[in-house]
Design a protein that fits this description.
275 residues; six-stranded mixed beta sheet; 9 strands; 26% helix
Length: 275
């Protein structure tokens, strides 16, 4: 009887041991789940509205804002929405509510400012405020957004302007010139002066040749933060009245990577796959 009990006990022990071994040898037993990075996504909201103040004046508001559901870094989002420091809710609904508020504020302010002279308008006019964000590219975790605004509130012509911003999604920051090149600003400005007529603008000479330099209103073209790049050049973008007369329009000045050779930052060259 004792022998039988001993055999049964040994059999039970072996069975438990075998079961444990099976569990530990299972390919899923020690498996660690690897979280994949969230895929970059982009969304947008667009608002268009208008109000007739009287028979002669119509005011219009339009805005197109981008929304970035997968960007979570608040500092980076603050930099993306730098034109409006009131942004606290970066969701699509939050951006929509804020833009609706901007629209309502615009209508209220124009009505308030025009009440004393509105009846003096003798011919039909349309005044407007327009703002937009456009993602131009997202290559090598460098996201290029172009901001555009235009408005008209009477006068000879409307006004408009551009802002170009590059965001480093790898390091959650707005890219600065010194992240790209170590060339001193005075040397960059010499290249800008030299290259001003390399891109078309609103100014041409009597032969139809681009002559943006003829409309310069500054002695020195500044190397500003309003830049972007592609595989060929670094570009600086200037709005009307920034460096030239309004008639020249907005001015784009390229500086080739060859002209910046020897000053480009190694990390930037690596990410842009430059040799």
């Amino acid at each position: 009887m004792k022998n039988t009990i001993a055999v049964l006990a040994l059999s039970s022990l072996l069975a438990v041991s075998a079961c444990n071994k099976t569990k530990s040898d299972s390919p899923t037993a020690d498996k660690t789940e690897i979280t994949q990075p969230e895929k970059f996504t982009l969304d947008s909201i667009k608002i268009n509205d208008s109000v007739m103040l009287n028979d002669s004046l119509k005011i219009k508001f339009s805005s197109q804002m981008l929304v970035f559901p997968t960007i979570k870094d608040k500092k980076l989002l603050d930099s993306i929405y730098y034109t409006n420091k009131d942004v606290q809710d970066f969701s699509k609904e939050g951006i929509k509510k804020l833009t609706e508020k901007e629209k309502n504020d615009y209508f209220i302010n124009v009505k308030k400012d025009s009440k004393d002279w509105l009846s003096d308008i003798r011919y039909y006019q349309e005044w407007y405020s327009d703002a937009s964000m456009k993602m131009v590219s997202n290559v090598n975790d460098y996201m290029h957004i172009e901001y555009f605004w235009s408005s008209y509130e009477g006068g000879a012509h409307d006004n408009f302007g551009f802002a170009e911003r590059i965001f480093d999604l790898k390091n959650n920051k707005k890219l600065q010139l010194n992240d790209i090149t170590s060339m001193p600003k005075n040397k960059l400005e010499e290249l800008l002066q030299k290259n001003i007529n390399k891109q078309n603008g609103g100014a041409t000479d009597e032969n139809g040749t681009v002559d943006n330099s003829d409309m310069l209103i500054v002695d020195k073209i500044p190397a500003t933060g309003n830049f972007y790049f592609d595989h060929k050049n670094l570009y600086f973008h200037y709005s009307p009245y920034e460096i030239t007369a309004f008639a020249a329009g907005d001015i784009l000045i390229p500086i080739s990577w060859e002209e910046l050779k020897g000053t480009l930052k190694p990390e930037f060259m690596q990410r842009m796959k430059m040799k």
